[in-house]
Amino acid sequence: MILDNKQNGLVGDSFKKYVAKDASLSLVTNQFSIFAYQKLRKELKHIKDARLLFGSPSFNEVSTISLLGDTHEIVERNKMKQMYVAKKCAEWIESKVNVEEAKMPGAIPTKLLHVNASQDVAISGSSDFTCSGLGYCPSSSFDMNTLITNQENTDQLLGWFNSLWNHDAMTHNVKTEMLAELEKLHQDNAPEFIYFVTLYNLFKDLLSDIDEEQIIKTKTGFKDTVVWNKLYHFQKDGVLGAIDKLEKYNGCIIADSVGLGKTFEALAVIKYYELRNDRVLVLAPKKLRENWTVYTVNDKRNILADDRLNYDVLNHTDLTRESGKSGEINLETINWGNCQVSPRCTISKAIS
User: Fold this and answer.
1) Which residues touch 125 (CB under 8 Å, ≥6 apart)?
2) Per-residue pLDDT reduced to its tens digit, 129-173
3) Nearest to 275 by CA among 225, 231, 220, 340
4) Are 349 and 291 in contact (CB under 8 A)?
5) Domains in the chain, CATH or no CATH each
6) What pLDDT is stored for residue 347 in this prediction?
7) Which residues pair with 346 in a beta bridge?
8) Which of 125, 209, 241, 326 is least crowded, fewest Cβ atoms below 10 Å from its Cβ?
């Protein structure tokens, strides 16, 4: 009987039909998913024992396995039951399963699910022990498996499995390693660890882009400015990231907690574009206007005087006015064309 996990039957349903209490299971797979275990948990709970053989090295520093399944199991992962399922799977592996793996990559390409019970059956073909391999997750794969109930043929397949299992030169035990990987999935983690993992996954694709030499043009003398050399390392990273975003996406928001130096980061970005002969306009709430103008004038409070910052400052409400003055700027005669809304003339600062 053909099982293609589509029109001609599901591997998982066929397993459920033939597995019996106190059966022995022999399984060859390249992938193992805790969610596939969850789908068959009721049946697997009552088997006598199981032997799980990975067809390629899976539990070492070079080749690591994902026990969360393949790309088709995102629906299962999104159910947020990973810890519970992983814990139950670990308990099952600990009590009833022995685990081995092939020592050489691709040594055992064939997949097998053999049930030794009152009626022996075997399912052999292309399906791994994953949700999609069992037919319980939609998949674009064209699976081809054969359900075998003939005693002579199932005996031959079990003999083939036994020859691999007992071949010490080809396979070795990895039950301890598998349980260690499962523990990583169900153990409690500190909030700090979860926070950093979340940050990494949000920004991992951007980490390689923060290349200082590629982002800023060093011939401008930017690294010699007062404002750049007053920044802490984390602020310099923020400035580089802001310039990178401005160049790529025509906009950027600098947002951080109070007191972490957002103003100086924005001033560094401004100085960079001034060194490139760009005209910069700062829009600020009226009550914060002096916070920005002080760095453009000859004032004792201006600790960046040597940088000679020369940007224009307007109140954000000035955008709706056509006449009158905003500080020293005549709104009726201002040349807006020199300050188009572009990454090289407008700096947005978010204050949290």
Assistant:
1) 3, 110, 111, 143, 144, 145, 146
2) 999 999 998 888 888 999 999 999 999 999 999 999 999 999 999
3) 220
4) no
5) 2-188 (3.30.870.10), 212-351 (no CATH)
6) 46
7) 281
8) 209
Q: Which residues contact 45 (CB under 8 A, 6 or more apart)?
A: 92
Specify whether the backbone of 139 is left (phi greater than 0), alpha (psi in -120 to 50) or beta. beta
CA distance 130 to 110: 15
Residues 6+ apart with CB under 8 A from 48: 22, 23, 24, 96
Higher pLDDT, 60 or 228: 228
The predicted-structure confidence for 21-36, as pLDDT tens digits, reads as follows: 889 999 999 999 999 9
- Amino acid at position 342, single letter: S
